[in-house]
């Protein structure tokens, strides 16, 4: 005899509720449909499972016996299904995440821990992006998504923001600006800047303050690595525009980081190409967003790093 699992679940619900209406409501079906399924089950077994009156529903002796068997069978089935799902998740594959310095800053550990917890079989690989052409990794198929600081001109990209943070000027310890508590765009227009030789014009205009200056900076050095940029700043050759997190993640004995006033903050988020979107990409993004929305204090400290500074 091959009993339908659905009918067993219906029977179990009626046996628990001893009421056809309440049992039907548990499965969002009509009471008549529930009654029909129980009658068909009784016909299939050749026994009466319930005594029905206008006032009450009671299990028969046959019903009591089936209830014991159904409870064990359904529990075993549910446990087997859960085990199969866990086994399936344990071999879901890998995801390569591109990043620049700091990754997702203080949210990184929480995001990676949540991904490991919710998707135990997912192997997350981290790959540093090219300093000048971060999008090359997409074209080469080396990454599935990236944690990037904007802005960028690439339009065929889906972007989910994680946080925004203020801009600072990186200046040498002996530079005249190092004695200031904050600097303006106008003051930075008077000094030599150093920036990545980026192929993205939108990114380049933002990080050289060209948008605020309404013209390219008069003195600009291009560099092809973050290390080179930092050493040029430390040597007093030039200043650079970066994010406030650099003071925490790019500490250098010869460099000071000074807040820049009246500039739009930089937004960091998850970016991926629509054609490379998979269930794993969506799962990683959803988990990262959940962490972002849960970790209010961490996000606040990233976005307002100078609030607690005397």
Task: Draw up the topology in text.
Elements (H helix, E strand, L loop, with lengths): L4 H13 L2 H7 L4 H15 L4 E3 L4 E3 L1 H29 L3 E7 L8 H11 L3 E7 L7 H4 L5 E5 L8 E8 L1 E6 L12 H4 L4 E4 L4 H7 L2 H4 L6 E4 L2 H9 L5 E4 L2 H4 L5 E5 L6 E7 L6 H16 L1 H8 L7
Parallel strand pairs: 3-4, 3-5, 8-9
Antiparallel strand pairs: 1-2, 5-12, 6-12, 7-10, 7-11
Task: Describe the protein in words.
The chain is an alpha/beta fold and 310 residues long. The chain has 3 domains: 5-89, Orthogonal Bundle (Arc Repressor Mutant, subunit A), CATH 1.10.10.10; 93-164 and 266-303, D-Maltodextrin-Binding Protein, domain 2 (3-Layer(aba) Sandwich), CATH 3.40.190.10; 167-259, D-Maltodextrin-Binding Protein, domain 2. The protein has 13 helices and 12 strands. The protein has helices at 5-17, 20-26, 31-45, 61-89, 108-118, 136-139, 185-188, 201-207, 210-213, 226-234, 246-249, 279-294, 296-303; strands spanning 50-52, 57-59, 93-99, 122-128, 145-149, 158-165, 167-172, 193-196, 220-223, 240-243, 255-259, 266-272. The strands form 4 sheets. The chain has a 5-stranded mixed sheet with strand order 4-3-5-12-6. α5 (108-118) links the parallel β3 and β4. α1 crosses α3 (31-45), α1 packs across α4 and α5 (108-118) packs across α12. The longest helix is centred in the first third of the chain and has 29 residues, at 61-89. The protein is elongated, with a radius of gyration of 31 Å. The termini are far apart.
